[in-house]
Amino acid sequence: MHSSNRPSGLTVAIPALLMALGVGCGDVEPTSSLAPQPSLSVRAAARPVAWLASCGSDVSPTASAMIGPEGGVLSAGPAVVFIPPEAVRTPTRFTIQPLAGTTLRVRITARGRERFGFARPIAVMIGYAHCSRQEFLRGNVSVWHVDDATDAPLERMPTVHDRQNATLGFLTTHLSTYAVAH
Predict the structure, then answer these.
(1) pTM
(2) E strands, 34-176, where?
(3) What is the Cα gyration radius of the chain?
C-alpha cells in the first residue's frame, strides 16, 4: 500500500463514507433521496460550468502508485481514493489528479486511461475545506461524473456529504473525471 500527502480529515472520513453508503450513519447525510431531484444536466447544457461548485485552485498536485490485490490508498490535494482488497486483480498504476481551475474537479486514471474495471467498488472522497464553505453549506451538493474535455454532466454519483469533515464521498466501479456540483 502506498499513499501520498494523505489529508487526515479525508482518511478519517473514508470509514464514515463506507458506513453511510452501506448502512447509514449519524451526521453523514446522503445527498440523494427518493424525492425527485432538480436536473443539473438541463442547466449545464445552457451554461456548461454554471452548475459546478466554485473552488479555485492554481495548484494541481498529482499522485501515482502501484496498487494490487491487497488494496491501497492514494491521495493528492483534497482527494483520496480507497481501493479495497480484491478490487484489483493484478498490480496496476493508479493516478489521482485534482485539476487546477475555478471548479472542484478530480481526474482518476489507471495506466493512463479512464477505462478500468474493478472487481469491487472503490471509495472516492473529495474535500472542500480549502474552499469558501458557503456554497457547500446550503442546498444539495453532489459529485458528478463529467466529460473530461467539456465538463458536461454524464452521471450523478450517489453522494454522501459529511459536513463535519468537509468532504463529499461516493462509491464507484469506474474511473473518470469527477466534479462537485450544486
Answers:
(1) 0.72
(2) 54-57, 63-67, 72-76, 79-83, 92-99, 101-103, 105-110, 122-127, 142-146, 153-156, 160-162, 167-172
(3) 15
